[in-house]
Amino acid sequence: MYEFTGNLQGKVAIITGSSRGIGAAIATTLAKHGCAVVINYKESALEAKSLRKQINKDYDVTTYDVQADVSKPEDVARLFEQAVTVMGRVDIVVSNAGIEHFGDLATVKSEEIDRVFDVNVKGQFFVAQQAEKYMEEGGRLVLTSSVSAVMVCFNSLRFLRPASRSEPVCQGVPRHAIYAASKAAVTGMTKCLAWDLGKKNITVNCIAAGGVKSDMYDKNAKEYMKDTHELSVPEIDARVSSWSPLGRVGMPEDIAGMVALLASDEAGWITGQTLHVSGGAHMATA
């Protein structure tokens, strides 16, 4: 298997929502490539400390952790202030914190919409504001979207389509409108921020992840499939694997690898892009 060998030695990264799941994999992968990492969490302090301990054991890099709620601009400002005070600089910012949402159209409340957009949209904008303020010339900002923002291609599944149809289906996801809208907003934001931060030679890109076996995978995967709430984990894996030409479920390290690439010097001519990391479950048009 090809392994990215870019050197991030001497770089400092802030990763929001990084005490567990995809964020933890991103922090670990960047550390593997020599990058000092600032781990952010909202509530899971013990997990953040445990991750720091593991990274410090495995890699010769500096780590730090900061509690901050990305939906609060004052918290995001404090996160960056503390990180720069301790680390001296910031070169890479990964806006990974986000929340999932499913809800019936008729019963979704305004407060639910606000909660999702406060984290998934406003939170990423607040992170970008501080990144622009503190990041070094030539830095890297990576935002997070989802294939839910565009469409989901369910191959080899009889999901909300007549049984007689055998071709792949490209469609939205039921009960997922608020989350999809929040992630679609980030793809538009990415293009504009690329211009705003380009004057400092900072690249801004976005990762739209497909189904990834993270800490919330078992629960959320069932929401993408019809009449499957009684499936076992291996059965869920088989269904999700069938969406990809590669025939497997995505792992947090798959997303982390793309972040490492975008954070590298080799990615200096990539900006304003949303890159789909879904194992081909969704294939973006040219």
UniProtKB/TrEMBL annotation:
GO biological process, one term: fatty acid biosynthetic process
GO molecular function (one): oxidoreductase activity, acting on the CH-OH group of donors, NAD or NADP as acceptor
Pfam assignment, any one: adh_short_C2
Keywords assigned: NADP, Oxidoreductase
InterPro entries: NAD(P)-bd_dom_sf, Sc_DH/Rdtase_CS, SDR_fam
UniProt-listed PROSITE patterns: ADH_SHORT (PS00061)
Similarity section: Belongs to the short-chain dehydrogenases/reductases (SDR) family.
Name of this chain's protein: Uncharacterized protein
Source species: Cercophora samala
Phylogenetic lineage: Eukaryota, Fungi, Dikarya, Ascomycota, Pezizomycotina
